[in-house]
Amino acid sequence: MPARNVSEALDKAAVRPPEAAIVDLALPDGDGIDLCRRLREWSEMPILFLSATDEDAEKVRALNAGADDYVTKPVWPDELVARLEAVLRRAPLGMGESIVAVGGLEIDLGARTVRDDGRKIRLTAIEYDLLRVLARHRGKVMTHRALLTEVWGPGYELDTATLRFHIANLRKKIEPAGRREHYLRTEIGVGYRLVC
Description:
alpha+beta, single chain, 7 helices, four-stranded antiparallel beta sheet, Rossmann fold
């Protein structure tokens, strides 16, 4: 499903997540790097950059933003197809999911909304980002360091007091009354897990 610009690409991907995305570096309403970053907020779909720009700095920016590969134009069509097939082979199953449901909790990663049995839950940006990371890795333990780095960035990986504060606030909002650690489980001394 082709898209002409960043906003159209985000809209289409949120409504009907594709198996993979081929992104150009230059788009009419923004930068392909921005599109890649926004897609990576909620999707693990393979992203392949196809661009006329052959500068190493741009390739590094694209890969650091979450791209899986970067191909410079002109490219032989068979090579492009082979590269796309290669990133699809490495892609995890269900990587295009935009809605994660855990019991009555529904996290719409594309729309950045959370509902519990249909009732909208209002979260701060940090609370949402924590829940997004946990949802993308549901069932798996996310270490304190991994959560801090992914939500706050490098340099914050030891700030567990801040993490505990925000996790406690997130729990108050998403956990059913009287059901401690129903959705969000503490792995003592390690991190947290969103229960499947």
